[in-house]
Each structure stands twice: as structure tokens, then as C-alpha cells.
Amino acid sequence: KTRVGILISGRGSNMEALIRAAARDDFPATIALVLSNRADAAGLDIARQHGIAAHAIPSRDFRNDREGHEARLHQELIAANCSLVCLAGYMRLLTPAFVQSWAGRMLNIHPSLLPSFPGLDTHAKALAAGSRIHGCTVHLVTEIMDEGPILAQAAVPVLPGDTESELGARVLAQEHIIYPMALRHYLGQPAIPADASNALVSPCA
Ligand code: GAR
């Protein structure tokens, strides 16, 4: 099985979706390690409850030393024999050096239908734009934020009167479906139809 390291910054619900999927015998990956750049990330406890090694490498301990922080992340991922990284609500931009060392081996989930609405506040942006369809994207990480080859997307409707949080919850439910699905597919196992609801996975993995 491919050993995966997950990077988080907060709640960790996508991390948990990956952990739950990877607990199945037939899943091609195992979650070896969870790292957070914030000591107070709720996801750390959730990971530990699932028996996964999890700890913080606080970015605030590396003020003005982004490379130093990421060198530590890299070291720990390598020490845990990870060969793939999943960003799951990791809210810091990564340096080109880190991105390059994981090129083709680092996935991200983003709460919009990229290339629409990169960056933050994607649900507010979709509402402000009058989008009728919104969603989420799993993609490979490249040096440009929220770019990189798209592996999977799922669409949800924007309903009349939607608030940011209602729309966000509808998207998040899909994130939890497509992230494990995209990971499995990227590792060479076809998606099973039962997963697929309204998600599309790229066949080019
Ligand atoms: C998710 O909605 C994820 O798509 C988003 O942050 C949330 C993290 O939630 N990621 C980004 O915006 C990345 N730029 P989670 O910690 O519960 O998975």
C-alpha cells in the first residue's frame, strides 16, 4: 500500500474521510502520518482517535523561515516512509522547493470548481458571482496556488436563498466523497460506481 502523509491546519474533516476510506482492506493507501502547522488543529485529536500518528510542527516556531518549516515537514514525511502527500485544509502556501520535491505526488482538495474561485472564501465568491453550480476539486499541487491537473470534481446546485454556510456544507459533503475516490483512482484503482453520485474522476491518472 502507498504510505500517505496528510497535512492539515484545522478541523480535519477531509483528513478523517481519507482515514476512514484507507481503513478498508481494499484501499490502495494507508495513512501513515498526519502533520499540522497549527498546534490547536482539531484534526490532530481526530487522527489519534483513529490510531494514526499525528502532531503539530507549528509554523509560528519558524517565523520568517518557511524553508526551515517545510524542511521539517519533509523530513518527517520521509521518516514515516510516505511516498504521497494529501493536503486537507492545509492553509499555508508551500514553497516551490517543497512542491518540487513532491511533484506528481501531492494532492489537494479545494472547495470550488476550479479554475473558478481559487483562493479563500470560495462559497461567498460563488454566491456573489450568481453561480448556479458550485462544487469542489481534487487536483495535483503545482507551484501556482489552486492550479495543477484536475483529478476529480463534484458539482452541487446553488439553491435560491443559500447562505455561505448552507452552500459550504453541501460542498463539504461532496469533498468527503471525492477526495478518497480521487486518491484511490490516482493510485490506479478505478472508482466504484457506488461512489460516483455526481462526481467525475479524470481517467488520466
Ligand atoms: C475544506 O473545505 C477544504 O476544501 C478547504 O478547507 C476546508 C478544510 O476543512 N481547503 C482550502 O480552502 C484550501 N485552500 P477540513 O479541515 O474539515 O477538511
UniProtKB/TrEMBL annotation:
It comes from the Bacteria. Pfam families: Formyl_trans_N. PROSITE patterns: GART. (6R)-10-formyltetrahydrofolate binds at R66, M91, R92, L93, L94, N108. It catalyses: N(1)-(5-phospho-beta-D-ribosyl)glycinamide + (6R)-10-formyltetrahydrofolate = N(2)-formyl-N(1)-(5-phospho-beta-D-ribosyl)glycinamide + (6S)-5,6,7,8-tetrahydrofolate + H(+). Keywords: Purine biosynthesis, Transferase. It is an enzyme of class 2 (transferase). PANTHER family: PHOSPHORIBOSYLGLYCINAMIDE FORMYLTRANSFERASE. This is Phosphoribosylglycinamide formyltransferase.
